[in-house]
Amino acid sequence: MNELTLLLIEAVISVITSITIMLLIAPSLKSALLDLCPTEKQANFWLAYTRTMMLISPLLLVLLINSTHKGDMFSDLRAAFIAALTGLLIGLIFIGRKMYIPVDRQIKQSGKDKTI
Description:
By secondary structure, the chain is mainly α.
């Protein structure tokens, strides 16, 4: 298998993994964004932004790993899959942290946060 074919397969792994995760979280994320954003247009923007970032970050890591990792085909594909999942994990951590800020603020404002 030549290098270009391997790179394309690794990119496809990244994109399919990203799309799968986005399909899983999109309905809940859209609902949360509609609750948190003042308008539906803003919620749609942040949903599109999140989808874009969830495609870009894994793909960037896959391309980075591809340029530095040289092994047999199985090892290269495994490294691409690990890079794609790492990119998604990092993206989900950032989304979770950003989504938690306004939720935490709402909890504190409602008085439900009864820390001693």
